[in-house]
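Hi support team,

I'm filing this because I wasn't sure whether my run with S-adenosylmethionine finished correctly. The job status page said complete, but I'd like someone to confirm that the output block is well-formed before I use it downstream. Pasting the exact inputs I used:
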Amino acid sequence: MAARPMTRQLLTGRLERTLPPDWDLAKRVFDDSKRFFLEHGLDADEAYAMAMTSSELLENAVKYGDWSRDAAEQITYLAEIEGRAVTVEVQSPVADDPGALRKLDDQIQWIRGFQSPFEAYVERLKLLSSQPYREGQSGLGLIRIAYEARGLVDFYVTPDRRLAMSAVYQPSGLFP
Amino acid sequence: MTSAAVPPPHLDAALEHEGQRVPVRVTTRGRLSLAVTFLGPATTFAAGTVFSRLVFERDGKEMALSRARLTEAPRPGAAGVLVFVDDVYDCAALVDEGQVRNLLAFFGELPLVLAQREQISTEFRAFVADLNYDLTVYKKFFDQQDRVFEQEPPTVAHAAQHALLARAGDEFFGYLDRMLDRLAELVQGFTPEQHERHGYYFRQQLWPFIMGSAFMQRTNLKPRGYAGDAQMMDMIYDDAFQGRWVFNKLMHKHPIAHPGAQAVRNRRVLVPQMLHAARVGRPTPLRVLSVACGPARELADLFKAPRDCAELSITLLDQDDEALQTALSTVKGLETRLGTRIEARVVNQSVRTLLKEADLAARLGRFHFIYTMGLFDYLTPPVARAVLERLYALLEPGGLILVGNYHVSNRSRYYMAYWLDWALYYRTEDEMLEMARRLPGASATVSFDDSRCQMFLRVEKPS
Ligand SMILES: C[S@@+](CC[C@H](N)C(=O)[O-])C[C@H]1O[C@@H](n2cnc3c(N)ncnc32)[C@H](O)[C@@H]1O
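And here is everything the job wrote out:
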């Protein structure tokens, strides 16, 4: 990875999209978001990582969103650069299932509980390698965001029952 | 009344021997061995017999485990013992859940972990090696003394240990402080990625010493799934030696004496002070909400006299039921001490999902004071903003919110990250104020505690 300049400035900005939940959504947003991050001062590796993060969160929204509730529901995507934080947030309808939400909360805290997300990745691999798991249930997606993109994953549920899932990246070497 | 003994969970399976399948019933004997009973008519196998596979059916699929040896043959009234030869299976998971968990399977991934040490700076390696060497020397010395003390009657041993702690404790703490300064010098300019890599390397190398401290053991292992659980907080509040041996005592005490932990003890006093000051002249009763309350030790300073109990009610919210139990015992203790009832209520929920309530005020009520310490340090900006907005909406006109957050310049930052594996979302003053900027009509200020590790955002709602 190329060395980053000691100090640099990012441009404040937002990219917003409202989209129907179809399967190539993630692919379509990838290029747009990568361009947005590049244009606002992230380097190529960082922009790629944030675009990858965007895809991962969008795919999750399509896969796990509660699309049976209302055909008019859509996905909202937000990429934002403000101050020291580069944020991607994806909102999608979520079923009111306290058990599933608690599990997600625990998973987020577990991942964030490691100073080095590599450790979360290794621990997860240990578990996965020792037992069979079903496709799509590896739980590696969010860990990959943490480990490969240095994104701090977090979420909340809005009063209109939408899951707002986000990843925040804090670039180093920001001025001042 | 007689109660029938509940049979232990079992699994019906078959052992393969010379091409034949022998039906068996297995139960767990320990985590890594099985008790086995042969179900077929008159089957006898001698101890030492090796079976080529253990097979069973689960959800219509055949599952197979590798070679197993009979280490004890079954006797009348006693099952035989079966251990695995080529792999190490989790037998509890096998019998209780029908899961095949091979504990050795991760072996193949070890190169990934080993590769982590590439890209560790030469200086950092040397630093860790020195630290390892020095700690070994200190530990050996302290352990030697402990062995001598152990021969003495308890009161003598206790006095001797006390003298050693007093004599050598400060010096050892001074040494640890200097090593922390050195650590800060080495890692200050690191990118997040470098911090993570070096932090991981650091903990791998110093693991035995880290595990020698009750506090660091808990922050690293996180038995409740997150750092900062009620027991960790209690350790910080108690600020005492813990452990049997001198070395363990010192390794436990040093991190909880550090400024970052002092900041926790400071806020325990400061928050009630700020609330008492804000109480003056307001009509009572006043409703108070503590979000992410943990053990709620600060209540001792909030409810100091029976008058406080008459004038204040408290709602304690936390995601962890164990924390709420601790908080409730804090309340009970105070009730006994003050000889009166405290109006206290607990809510077990995470703030992440609390926000889904369309009418939160209907569920929780409205409050004059809301405070939340040790929570926002875990919330990223989008979530922190959303939580603060909802809390602000719960505030009565003229009400006050206090939000604690560690500052980017927390002097214990690298201690926490590298030794304790305790990562926080640090903020600047501006970032604290920024969170409040979107709240309608709010006036906000930021202040620090004496340790200057921690900030308090104070948000007031207009009357
Ligand atoms: C560092 S402790 C602080 C406890 C207490 N406020 C104090 O100062 O002693 C953090 C507490 O926050 C709780 N917590 C963490 N995340 C939470 C969430 N999303 N919702 C509610 N409580 C949470 C934990 O269960 C834990 O009890």
